[in-house]
Amino acid sequence: MPSFNRDAVNRIMNQGYKMTPLPEKVRTELHNYVTRIAALYRGVNFHNFEHASHVTMSANKLMNKVCSPMLFNGNKKNEKKENKGGNTTKAQEADFFFSTYGIGLDPLAQFAIVFAALIHDVDHTGIPNFELIKENADLGSQYKNRTVAEQNSIHIALSILMEPKFENLRLCIYTDEESKQRFRQLLINVVVATDIADRDRMGKEKARWER
Fold first, then answer.
1. Does the CA dihedral 62-64-67-70 come out positive or negative?
2. Does pTM surpass 0.85?
3. How many CB atoms lie within 10 A of CB 44?
4. Which pLDDT score, from 0 to 100, does residue 91 have?
5. Which pLDDT belongs to residue 80?
6. What gap in Å lies between CA 97 and CA 129, rounded to an integer?
7. Phi and psi based region of residue 117 (left: phi greater than 0; alpha: psi -120 to 50; beta: remaining)
8. Given CB 3.0 to 4.6 Å as the disulfide criterion, which of 18, 24, 48, 88 pairs with 13?
């Protein structure tokens, strides 16, 4: 989670997000990347590209809703009275930042969530991990028999992204090694979290929210 930056939060809540059009090269590479990913989804009953498309649109809608300054800007009666000048109060700014766990101020995290939705089931065979491990022992051992399908999807997605033909797209996502590694870790965390059959991991995730 990024550090609380009141100036940045104030700017977003009072002026909105600054939308920058993607350069044509980046748009072309993004289109080609999505096309490649789509082609690698299998024609299984559930974990197919239609499902991935629905999840991607839902994730994008969720990010737009969760990170919308309008949800925190002047919605409370007491804050309206205090906020006669039209600018946000300190309480509203803190509420926006901490209620979104910093995601409202973190475009890389927002993008990683939507990107993860796009690729989270790529190459999925349509069978659960416990069965996949039995049928494909080599793949299971490669990922230590844990969240096998999810880790395989991540590997495929990142391998394609690292191809030279997607250089401009990568530079639009991250610009240095630190942001690259952070994007990679965010992607892993989000996709692995979709393996709801991993009881050990699910138990740890629930314990985090009970603190």
1. negative
2. no
3. 13
4. 77
5. 44
6. 37
7. alpha
8. 88
Cβ neighbours of residue 87 closer than 8 Å, sequence gap 6 or more: 10, 14
* Residues 6+ away with beta carbon under 8 Å from 117: 52, 55, 56, 58, 59, 60, 190
DSSP-assigned states of every residue in 98-150: HHTTTGGG-HHHHHHHHHHHHHTTTT--SS-HHHHHHH-HHHHHHTTTSSHHH
Q: Could you report the average pLDDT of every consecutive run of 10 residues in the chain (211 residues)?
A: 69 72 96 98 96 97 81 50 58 77 85 98 95 93 94 98 98 96 97 85 69 62
Contact 123, 152 (CB under 8 A): yes
pLDDT reported for residue 112: 97
**Tokens encoding 13:** 């809540």
* Closest CA relative to residue 4, chosen from 76, 83, 106: 106
Q: What pLDDT is recorded for position 71?
A: 59
Residue 102's region, left for phi above 0, alpha for psi from -120 to 50, else beta, is left
Helix, strand, coil percentages, rounded to 5, for the chain: 70, 0, 30
Q: Would you state the torsion angle of the CA atoms of residues 40, 174, 176, 159, taken in this order, to the nearest 10 degrees?
A: 0
* Residue 105 CA to its chain's centroid (Å): 14
pLDDT at 87: 67
Cα(164)–Cα(186) distance, rounded to whole angstroms? 22
